[in-house]
Amino acid sequence: MSKRALITGVTGQDGSYLAEILLDKGYEVHGTIRRGSTFNTQRIDHIFQDPHDDQIPFHTHYGEMTDASNISRLIEDIEPDEIYNLAAQSNVAVSFDQPQYTTDTNALGTLRVLDAIRESRIDTRFYHASTSELYGGQTSEPLNEQSPFRPRSPYACSKLYAHWITINYRQSYGLHASNGICFNHESPRRGKRFVTRKITRAVAKINAGYQDKLYLGNLDAKRDWGYAPEYVEGMWQIVNQDDPDDYVLATGETNTVREFATKAFEVIGIDITWEGDGVDERGIDSSTGEKLVEVDPRYFRPNEVDTLIGDPTRAETELGWKAETSLDGLVERMVQNDVDKVETEGEVGLDYL
Ligand code: NDP
Ligand code: GDR
Q: Between 55 and 15, whose confidence is greater?
């Protein structure tokens, strides 16, 4: 009999890649989607086009993290062997505008899933999508599972609760419950408001003449950027350890937003030089003198995470997991995808958010 997995947030970047790898491994996959006034299943549409086609063992269900009875019912009906709790209000900047909703979804939502497992007494394994945002980023030391947490946003605070309640349910009720403390991971499916995808889309649109300029916030922020499909494989490996535990998944390298943008323009053959500093900093096309990148303070956050770099030693030694894709490879893949998309679809929507 094939194993059954439930993925909350299957329509997200990670959920869609995880569904693919679990189907490849022979799982029956169930994923939660949300009701919206427009369809929001673009990332999973290629997996199945027809919900009446039962050849592909992939099933979607309406699932809302703020609705406890909805979650309990799903878990009781599906009786999954593994639950991957990926659903979240995952945008750090938005969490400053919607702190209560973010907390309800991310913190209490995780508790609702754990409590539903506890109440149902179903024998299942649980993965929580924990995050490098917990560390707060005020040191340039590589961060591991023992490093202190200093959350600096409502998002990070909500995830801190989710992280600890996962450990608490493991300790209190013997659940096979683990945290993957994932550093940033990106892909062509990355949400368009995260900085990497915002940059690669803008580069593609500038390349095609649909956009003149890219406006960014803090160019000095440093992130440890990996390739998302490798991270979802790590999630599966964490869940399939004999004993539950918490693992950092990261590349061990860090770069600034400025460096990411420079590399992205390089892919389309533009060499950017940076002039000025602070809000007056700008990125200039060194062959034409054109100003292609500007700083807009609207993208600054009330509280910033300056630097994140992970130490994935435990995942490497205990799981045999290692991030393989270089930043250059990642940037190239993302820019190329957006260049192709702009070529086939033309002007592809607004990028100012
Ligand atoms: P996305 O934002 O791409 O996907 C989030 C998913 O959660 C979507 O399916 C979304 O649905 C769903 N969702 C949001 N709010 C609710 C809600 N109230 N009820 C039910 N579903 C909801 O995130 P990623 O795929 O990038 O990340 C997956 C998880 O990993 C998240 O928990 C994120 O916080 C965490 N994480 C991500 C990292 C990264 O670098 N990507 C790093 C560390 C942690 P819809 O599509 O309808 O909006
Ligand atoms: P992050 O991702 O906050 O790390 O959270 P994001 O890409 O939004 O920001 C990374 C850094 O870039 C700076 N930045 C900008 N960010 C955005 N979005 N837009 C801009 O124009 C811009 N200019 C500069 C930000 O200030 C920040 O320092 C992601 C999410 O996936 C979380 O869910 C996850 O937990 C963490 O990664 C690890």
A: 15
14: which residues sit within 8 A by CB, 6+ positions away?
86, 129, 185, 228, 231, 232, 235
- The response to whether residue 299 sits with its C-beta less than 6 Å from ligand 2 reads yes
Instruction: Give dist(CA 175, CA 117) in Å, integer.
Output: 9
**Does the pLDDT value for residue 353 go beyond 60?**
no
Fold designation for 195-222+256-307+326-350: UDP-galactose 4-epimerase; domain 1 (3.90.25)
Which protein residue has the closest C-alpha to ligand 1 atom 26?
13
pLDDT the model gives residue 49: 65
User: Ligand 1 centroid to 43 CA: how many Å?
Assistant: 12
Decide whether any atom of ligand 2 lies within 6 Å of the 193 Cβ: yes
Distance 64 CA to ligand 2 centre (A): 24
Overall size of the chain counted in residues: 353
Q: Is the CB of 325 under 6 A from ligand 2?
A: no
Residue 188's pLDDT band, with cuts at 50, 70 and 90, is: very high
- Percent with pLDDT over 70 in the chain: 97
Each domain of the chain, given as residue ranges in start order, spans 4-186+226-252, 195-222+256-307+326-350
Q: If you measure from the C-alpha of residue 14 to the centroid of ligand 1, how many angstroms do you get, rounded to a whole number?
A: 8
C-beta 104 within 6 A of ligand 1: no
Asked whether residue 259 carries a pLDDT value surpassing 60, the answer given is yes
Tens-place pLDDT, residues 72-110: 999 999 999 999 999 999 999 999 999 999 999 999 999
Q: Look at the alpha carbons of 212, 217, 218, 224 in this order and tell me if their dihedral is positive or negative.
A: negative
Determine whether the shortest distance from the Cβ of 133 to ligand 2 is under 6 A: yes
> What's the whole-model pTM score?
0.98
Atom of ligand 2 nearest to the CA of 296: 21
Please list, in sequence order, all residues whose beta carbon lies within 8 angstroms of the beta carbon of residue 137, skipping any fewer than 6 positions away.
152, 222, 304, 305, 306, 307, 308
CATH architecture of 4-186+226-252: 3-Layer(aba) Sandwich (3.40)
